[in-house]
Amino acid sequence: MDHKNVFVHAKWQVKEGKLDAVLQLMKEAGEKSVQEEGNLFYKLHQSQEDQNTIILYEGYVDANAVDVHRNSEHFQNIVLEQVVPLLENREVSLMNRLF
Length: 99
Known about the structure:
Blueprint (H helix, E strand, L loop, with lengths): L5 E9 L4 H15 L5 E8 L6 E8 L2 H8 L2 H11 L3 E10 L3
């Protein structure tokens, strides 16, 4: 990986009682995201302290690949339209690798 790769770190707090729905939707979103040409990886994690805290860690070849992902039909329809309303909070950071 070189320094132009872009990494996405997203921390989501899922609303009480909505975890199963979010996980099911994210399984589909993840399967479609890893098929994108510019995707390096798409990983979903769950906090050991709070099961409603979900961390996404994604890698893309460059900023353009992130834009392609964010404009994809599956991101728009699954993540923004269906998952985001099931979240209490959503923090997203775009990162560059330092070393």
